[in-house]
């Protein structure tokens, strides 16, 4: 993410959280957080529980976030947190760049409050029969993250959707949504088609399709990881087995038990480190009502 | 242990699960309309979900696990008819996921996340090699000064970003705990926490001292846990298999493991074997195989090529001589000066006192004699320093001691001194340098005097000493950086003072321990210094100071040794008695300056010989 993308991301987040932007430029933003954003970002659970219990007017924090990459020299000369006092109160200054803790936290906060949606596409204005009613199909849209893991890791993202009316799957679903105007309210002159699939059924269809797709991918990485796992296992066997074989004296029973426990522990560690696996997780998902019968 | 790999981002299975995961990140909760707070459901065992059949096989070797927490939440919200999240937030969430995506197995993603910090090429290479070839289990054995901590930080950061590591234990000597935490925090933005209280262990990334960690109840608790990564600094302390340190590390359950040491082999090949066995048992074969295949004698390996190959799979040792790391130059200037007649009279007086006193009690208490030598050194620094010591000496004496009048005589000599030759010279130097300068002295009293003296001459100077707490030290450094031209410091060692923005050092007086001199210079002359470093040694002629400067500068040429070389030399030489003590002994035992000079020369030769021997050993 470059400076511009970071700036755009931060401003969009603040806007969505109804924060008050006091000053805004390409290189920085000064913002008074909304109560919701303050709860999500400032790590003040005691303060907020005080506000909730007493009904006091909340006083939210004000930040000035700079987006320019600070050079090492500048960073060294800046104290980690700096304040400016103004008439309206204290402003905390921070650097927000790709890799900074604050941006990382904003990522997490966005994922926390952008998990589940139900949306309708707005019908084009002025067109169509004012008395007629347009049919809308419900889609289950799911953003999947797929992780290919062994002692290393790689990830992919899939933004898929399935029509709950017909079970048709669109593998470019998230992309097709980008240009549409979506609203949380049901537009007028619209009727929703009856769903043929339950949500759960739709989800398992998506998962099955994902499974079929992943089965056809290249598993060289996994074969290689398995080879490494076997090599590692072989290495520790060569180390432990001769020692265990030599411990035959009755007095050595206890020692032998300890050693073989250690052996098993090492085996488990190697398994933990190398065994190839694929993990699929849902970043976020929603129900999207779109015009047409699909 | 049943499933040996819980999702690295999830709760560890087995005995580890009761440990509460207190995240450093504020727990983002969205208070919903109906008052229920939704939090991110921790990843439980995939088989635990009602709708999910057993994990599915994608390939004979690979199972697919599905984590569908967000979908289940969608179902719950449908049942309750909301609340629904914002569309733009939904898109931002995906954008965040895309930005953080680890799109390939190999690239070092951490580099793009550290925009304000540029690791050196050998550090990046090392990180890459550990991640991709050594599979996260390695001994980092760079020579001192090449940045082993940076390499470990890069590796840790990369694993964190990739989500392969969450729970980390970093074990270091107690004196380095804070330095590690600060380094990880400031350079790498890694939320590491120093272990202070029992609850500190609940953090994901903990830095603790080995001694604390291996003590119960910590030990039992840590052994019950699983760690994605363990880092051990000063790992040469693990060379003996029978020590509690070794056994502790051996018992810990770990996935990746980094051992850091500058001196992987000191005395014995079997020590190296032990270290490697800790990391990868069997890498060098069984104990018997190793002895048969690689050991000719305790210190002499055989089949070296083969040993090297086996070692290179688990150990990386970057050397300064490999190049690639450019340190700026050091220029050393000795500034000889003559004491004023009054000062010289005091010096003579103290020297006589020391001689007489030492001989009158010869064969007596050696340590009290050592403190007498200090007197002589103090005269070379400032009258304030020697005054304080004399007064303390006087207080400790019996009322009727015959020495008391002699001390009072010396105090009278001090009274007659009106000016400090060295301070005036220093002032002159600082004016001519006209840039930031750090002045080092051994004595508190001298430090106070200098700050007063500079102030009288309209020069603001910042004090810095070991007794200050962390916050005050930081504040002083900050003041020096922003406001003052001069810092007067008594402490050179200790952690965390990095003054690369300054490249002039004045040694107002010299410590007798060359390591301390090196530490002083190391504050400014280190990785990150962009200018050549100017060092000025003030040296009063006709005093013991002259001898010390002669030894350090002309004899062993220590100021021009490569960084890190000195500690190896000293370590070799100081096996029995410290260098400082030897020097003191020479001063006390020598009849005159000539003899002293000869004996110090002898010591210099011994240092030189050690240096040459080390040079030969370090040749590949």
Give a description of the structure.
The complex is a heterodimer of chains A (294) and B (620). Chain A starts with a helix and ends with a strand. In chain A, α8 (220-246) runs antiparallel to α9. Chain A has nine helices and twelve strands. Chain A folds into three domains: 3-113, no CATH class; 116-218 and 279-291, no CATH class; 220-275. Chain A has 294 residues and is of the alpha+beta class. In chain A, the strands form two sheets. In chain A, strands 6, 7, 8, 9, 10, 11 and 12 form a seven-stranded mixed β-sheet that branches. The two termini of chain B are 45 Å apart. Chain B has 23 helices and 19 strands. Chain B is 45% helix and 14% strand. Chain B is globular, with a radius of gyration of 30 Å. Chain B folds into four domains: 39-101, no CATH class; 117-322, Rossmann fold, CATH 3.40.50; 330-335 and 420-618, P-loop containing nucleotide triphosphate hydrolases (Rossmann fold, 3-Layer(aba) Sandwich); 338-416. The longest helix of chain B has 26 residues, at 593-618. β12 (277-291) of chain A pairs parallel with β4 (62-67) of chain B, so a sheet runs across the interface. Chain A: InterPro entries: YqhG (IPR024562).
């Amino acid at each position: 993410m470059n400076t511009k993308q970071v700036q755009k991301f931060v401003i969009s987040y603040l806007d969505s959280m109804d924060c008050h932007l006091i000053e805004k430029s390409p290189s920085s933003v000064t913002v008074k957080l909304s109560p919701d954003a303050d709860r999500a970002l400032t790590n003040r659970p005691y303060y907020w529980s005080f506000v909730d219990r007493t009904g006091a007017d909340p006083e939210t924090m004000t930040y000035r976030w700079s987006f320019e990459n600070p050079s090492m020299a500048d960073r060294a000369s800046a104290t980690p947190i700096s304040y400016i006092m103004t008439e309206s109160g204290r402003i905390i200054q921070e650097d927000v760049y790709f890799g900074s803790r604050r941006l990382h936290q904003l990522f997490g906060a966005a994922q926390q409050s952008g998990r589940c949606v139900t949306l309708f596409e707005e019908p084009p204005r002025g067109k169509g029969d004012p008395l007629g009613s347009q049919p809308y199909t419900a889609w289950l849209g799911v953003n999947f993250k797929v992780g290919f893991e062994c002692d290393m890791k790689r990830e992919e993202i899939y933004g898929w959707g399935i029509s709950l009316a017909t079970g048709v799957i669109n593998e470019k679903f998230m992309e097709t949504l980008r240009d549409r105007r979506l609203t949380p309210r049901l537009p007028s002159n619209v009727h929703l088609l009856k769903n043929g699939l339950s949500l759960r059924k739709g989800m398992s269809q998506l998962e099955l399709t994902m499974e079929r797709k992943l089965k056809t991918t290249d598993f060289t990485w996994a074969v290689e990881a398995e080879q490494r796992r076997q090599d590692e296992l072989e290495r520790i066997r060569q180390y432990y087995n001769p020692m265990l074989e030599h411990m035959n004296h009755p007095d050595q029973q206890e020692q032998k038990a300890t050693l073989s426990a250690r052996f098993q522990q090492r085996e488990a560690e190697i398994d933990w480190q190398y065994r190839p696996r694929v993990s699929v997780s849902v970043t976020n998902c929603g129900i999207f009502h779109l015009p047409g019968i699909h | 242990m049943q499933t040996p790999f819980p999702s690295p981002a999830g709760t560890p299975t087995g005995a580890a699960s009761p440990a509460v995961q207190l995240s450093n990140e504020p727990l983002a909760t969205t208070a919903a309309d109906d008052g229920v707070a939704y939090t991110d459901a921790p990843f439980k065992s995939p088989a635990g979900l009602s709708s999910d059949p057993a994990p599915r096989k994608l390939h004979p070797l690979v199972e697919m696990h599905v984590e569908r927490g967000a979908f289940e939440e969608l179902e719950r919200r449908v049942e309750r008819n909301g609340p629904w999240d914002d569309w733009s937030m939904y898109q931002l969430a995906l954008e965040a996921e895309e930005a953080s995506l680890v799109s390939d197995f190999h690239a070092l993603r951490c580099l793009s996340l550290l925009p304000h910090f540029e690791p050196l090429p050998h550090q990046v290479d090392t990180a890459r090699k550990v991640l991709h070839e050594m599979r996260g289990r390695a001994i980092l054995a760079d020579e001192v000064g090449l940045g082993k901590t940076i390499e470990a930080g890069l590796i840790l950061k990369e694993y964190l970003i990739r989500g392969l590591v969450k729970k980390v234990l970093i074990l270091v000597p107690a004196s380095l705990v804070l330095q590690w935490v600060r380094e990880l925090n400031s350079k790498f933005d890694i939320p590491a926490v120093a272990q202070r209280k029992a609850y500190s262990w609940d953090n994901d990334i903990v830095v603790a001292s080995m001694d604390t960690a291996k003590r119960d109840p910590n030990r039992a608790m840590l052994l019950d846990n699983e760690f994605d990564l363990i880092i051990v600094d000063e790992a040469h302390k693990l060379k003996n298999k029978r020590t509690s340190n070794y056994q502790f590390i051996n018992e810990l359950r770990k996935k990746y493991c980094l051992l850091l040491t500058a001196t992987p082999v000191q005395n014995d090949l079997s020590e190296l074997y032990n270290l490697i066995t800790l990391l990868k048992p069997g890498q060098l074969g069984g104990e018997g195989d190793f002895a048969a295949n690689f050991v000719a004698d305790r210190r002499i390996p055989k089949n070296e090529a083969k040993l090297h190959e086996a070692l290179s799979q688990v150990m990386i040792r970057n050397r300064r001589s490999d190049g690639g790391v450019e340190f700026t130059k050091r220029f050393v200037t000795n500034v000889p000066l003559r004491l004023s007649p009054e000062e010289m009279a005091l010096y003579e007086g103290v020297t006589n006192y020391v001689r007489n006193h030492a001989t009158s009690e010869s064969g007596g208490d050696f340590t009290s004699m050592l403190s007498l030598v200090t007197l002589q050194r103090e005269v070379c620094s400032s009258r304030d320093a020697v005054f304080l010591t004399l007064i303390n000496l006087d207080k400790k004496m019996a009322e009727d001691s015959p020495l008391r009048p002699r001390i009072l005589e010396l105090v009278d000599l001090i009274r007659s001194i009106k000016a400090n030759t060295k301070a005036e010279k220093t002032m002159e130097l600082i004016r001519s340098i006209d840039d930031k300068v750090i002045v080092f002295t051994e004595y508190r009293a001298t430090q106070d005097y200098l700050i007063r003296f500079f102030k009288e001459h309209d020069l603001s100077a910042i004090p810095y000493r070991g007794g200050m707490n962390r916050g005050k030290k930081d504040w002083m450094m900050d003041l020096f950086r922003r406001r003052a031209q001069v810092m007067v410091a008594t402490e050179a060692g200790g952690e965390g003072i990095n003054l690369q923005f300054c490249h002039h050092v004045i040694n107002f007086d010299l410590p007798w321990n060359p390591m301390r001199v090196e530490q002083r210079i190391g504050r400014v002359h280190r990785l990150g210094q962009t200018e050549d470093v100017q060092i000025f040694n003030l040296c009063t002629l006709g005093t013991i100071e002259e001898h010390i400067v002669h030894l350090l500068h002309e004899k062993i040429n220590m100021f021009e040794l490569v960084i890190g070389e000195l500690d190896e030399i000293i370590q070799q030489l100081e096996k029995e008695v410290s260098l400082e003590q030897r020097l003191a002994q020479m001063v006390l035992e020598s009849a005159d300056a000539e003899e002293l000079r000869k004996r110090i020369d002898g010591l210099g030769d011994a240092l030189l010989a050690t240096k040459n021997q080390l040079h030969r050993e370090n040749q590949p």
